[in-house]
Fold each of these.
Amino acid sequence: MSNNQFHADEALSISVEREDDESGLIVLTISANNDVITIYTGRFQEDADQLRGELEGATDQARTIHDDWEDQPDNERDGFVSDGRDGYDVSLEGSHIGTYKSHDIAVYELASAMAAGGIFPNAWSVNERGNTDAIHDQVGAWLDEGKLKPAPGAKYGRGADVRVSDEDWQHWVVDADYGDMGVVVHTYGDPSVNMLASHDRLQPYEDDEEDEGIPYRDEEINPW
């Protein structure tokens, strides 16, 4: 017994005919791309009835698969937000995008990467145990005809000087404002010290206030 495997992709065709000659053979033909399988299933009515039963059974199986369909993550094509040691890692089509302070911000950045690249695959959230949940809708909610929607409530530009209430270090610099999701800031003079703060904790920093730390500003730093 042989076991032949063919990949049909989108070029699958299945047909049943009865030969118009003395034999009257029932012919099942399966085409997969350029490969063709021909099966002679008999020549009598009971043979046709058996073939019909097999095809109806296959139809029911295909319908069940369709109705119970669940997409499976594709590491080489899809987008991911993964729970990591230092935050939430974002990747798209196998490339690492960045690590972010919250899951909501990571979802927003994944949508941003999709809009920038013009690619919109499925998206998944991966927890610390490796389990995946679909987040296609959450990512899609940030997109409008392929363009990224602005984050509601965002008002600070990158590099803006702010104060953060309840913090001993007074002078902070905005890395990214995600509106209602929070603002990522770092201490003036030390970009490695950063945090996510809500808008109600921030106010503009006045130039005449005394700076702490080393006078340092690098607009091209990685905020994470």
Amino acid sequence: MNLISYGFFIYILLLIDTASIRSLDTKTISKLGFAIFILVSGQLVVAISWSKYLANEFKISFLMSLQSWLISIKGKYTPGKIASPILRLEDSIFDGKRKQLYFSIFIEQLYLIASNIFLSIYVFFVNSYKMEFHILAFILFSIFLNLLSKLNFKKFDFKYLRVTYILQFSVLLNFLGIFLSFNSILEQNVLIYTLVYQLSTAVGMIISIVPAGVGVREVSVIQLLKVLKIEIENLNLSILIIRVQLLIADLVLTLMGLLIKILKKNY
């Protein structure tokens, strides 16, 4: 499974047309580099949430859980994304716990999809949007999740929801990273583009048969902008750059996981 995941990851990297990216000026590249840092941070928040959950509920080493999560990132690049949760739980320390942990991963993905939709749905209500309603809805949703975290359903529990106060920052950081990327290239409608891209991220997570949502997000962005009747300005270049940024972010995270693994062996 590891070799297959690496193979698909390298294949996706080779598909990138870098000609347009090489034409960017140094200042723009610097801004895009900072956006990658934000995107990496957003992913790390999920990794930390997962590792904290395992440490609290199963007394599993935080560092071991973090390493497994980081290395499993490459599994997103296999069709169906089945490899990612398998790689996350492949170590023997998860023996006897996988049934509950697979359920927890399912909860995590549902939460991230719902959060992306909740954050980006504003794009359809620009004229009638009220921040007060958004905040109230978020508070009520958080209370509901806290109550849900106390339930058990046929030997499955929802305790992972207790760390959603950490997980929510992943979505916000991802939103900020995408906003900075669009803002580095485009001059108008940056917020709208970001909201649409965030919504397409949720679509890409739902349609999991495509490796890492490649193509699904991009097509979703274009179609949603057409529905909203928003002018498409340098969109192809922007989407290509963001896709490259996400690939680089995943590569950095995978290398971090491998580095932790190597350091653990040496020390």
Amino acid sequence: MVTHLSIVADILHILLHSKALGMKGAMLKQLVAPEFEHRSGISFKQAFAQYPKFVDVLKELNTVVHIQKPDGPGDVTVFLRTEGQYQDSAYSLASTPPANVTLVRPEIWIAFSNADASRLRFFHRGTEEVVHYVPGTDPQRETRVSNDKQFIKLDPVPANDHSAWMMEFLEKHPAVPNTIQTVARVIAQTYPYSSQLNREFSTALGEHGQSWRNFRTAKIVEYIHNWMRKNGIQTTIEKSSSASQPFGFSSPKAEVVSSISDSRTALRALIDGLDDRELSQILVPANLLARFSTMRKN
């Protein structure tokens, strides 16, 4: 059975299996959370609300990772336990991706797929390292990048492209019921693209959410290849198939199966993402709007 913890365990395995020196907890969380949300379709914070800190999630996965505390103040360092220990763990997905799925190196996948415009990303032509930072917050990294001409600015997928892909998906998937199509279009066209919007769009699609995630993955992989060619970078974005689950390939949604119809799920996803002002701007029959408002208050 795929659970929230098993998805995180699999992501940790991918990120840490080649890191002999481990990774700092804060950096690890920045990579784990968006990939978890991409795979599951729900927010990391919502899925693990019962855990006050990221390290508490890691402690639940003590058969997968080893947590090393610093001698004094500072961040923990996280190491992957041996391959054998991981495969024996109850959290191993032990899954094999289809042959036609591209296994994208995690640091590259995250750099291109995250639409956060405030963060700058750079790719090193020699070492193929990816460095990213928010301007003004990390002078050391900024100096390092500016002094090394081998770094090239990496262009993540523009937010408008993500939104356009949403509309293209709906146009190419007529099997999606009209009611869901309507709600999904409102989500895609009304608000600027963000990770939260992507989750709401995926949730609104109900059982078609997995098809959307696969569609989006293929688009991002194509974008990365085009960027590499445009900038004359001859390298591979693919990751060794020894990892049990690739970035850019979504696991089944780790949620309890509900008897609620797809249409109702879609409508609830839309309503939960709106405030009272936004609700007033949508043309909805007054009697239905009153019922929806009551449901939100309860």
